[in-house]
């Protein structure tokens, strides 16, 4: 049943844009910005949603979706608690990967690199810019713990909403703003005939080196 349903689904049906792999910037961050703008203009839903992959202490991979908060010369930024599986995994092993997929354009971007924390000032600014509900849930500081009952969550949230009413500038101590400095970035443009175009950037001793990859 599932097999037939899956076979009936289309993938990379197009129309899809072309990708001129000769006309690209030296720095993959510039190409990412340009592709990101294309995704926004094409109406891709939540183009800033990305998969963050990490590994645990046994070397077993883990992955979840997060929201991209910023991209600058340092890399790709995201915000989360430093507790819970991803926080612990990144503290043990700062090597991570980010993956974007923009369906309507048939484009995938894969980033591999090292994650580090932004300074406290930037972290606080990010936290205070979050809507009150998002700040209250972050202040509960229990992401990914076992939830005993919905009431437990409601009570904890009400407590934090009250703390925020008393102190609107409160920042969750376990909140983190993280930056992924890229070592490798791959741009993948899907093709309806499966002649996908792949451009791989690697950061070497003298700067960014690019090569094309087989589809
Ligand atoms: C669209 C979307 C956006 C999300 N954005 C974030 C985010 O920015 N930060 C975050 O901590 N979790 C975010 N999550 C939840 C994570 O996927 C994940 O459930 C949570 O961070 C716990 O991860 P962990 O158990 O691996 O630590 C988002 C989930 C989705 C589906």
UniProtKB/TrEMBL annotation:
<dbReference type="InterPro" id="IPR019576">
    <property type="entry name" value="Pyridoxamine_oxidase_dimer_C"/>
</dbReference>
<dbReference type="Pfam" id="PF10590">
    <property type="entry name" value="PNP_phzG_C"/>
</dbReference>
<comment type="similarity">
    <text>Belongs to the pyridoxamine 5'-phosphate oxidase family.</text>
</comment>
<dbReference type="InterPro" id="IPR012349">
    <property type="entry name" value="Split_barrel_FMN-bd"/>
</dbReference>
<keyword id="KW-0288">FMN</keyword>
<keyword id="KW-0560">Oxidoreductase</keyword>
<keyword id="KW-0664">Pyridoxine biosynthesis</keyword>
<keyword id="KW-0285">Flavoprotein</keyword>
<dbReference type="InterPro" id="IPR000659">
    <property type="entry name" value="Pyridox_Oxase"/>
</dbReference>
<dbReference type="InterPro" id="IPR011576">
    <property type="entry name" value="Pyridox_Oxase_N"/>
</dbReference>
<feature type="domain" description="Pyridoxamine 5'-phosphate oxidase N-terminal">
    <location>
        <begin position="37"/>
        <end position="151"/>
    </location>
</feature>
<protein>
    <submittedName>
        <fullName>Pyridoxal 5'-phosphate synthase</fullName>
        <ecNumber>1.4.3.5</ecNumber>
    </submittedName>
</protein>
<feature type="domain" description="Pyridoxine 5'-phosphate oxidase dimerisation C-terminal">
    <location>
        <begin position="175"/>
        <end position="215"/>
    </location>
</feature>
<dbReference type="Pfam" id="PF01243">
    <property type="entry name" value="PNPOx_N"/>
</dbReference>
<dbReference type="GO" id="GO:0004733">
    <property type="term" value="F:pyridoxamine phosphate oxidase activity"/>
</dbReference>
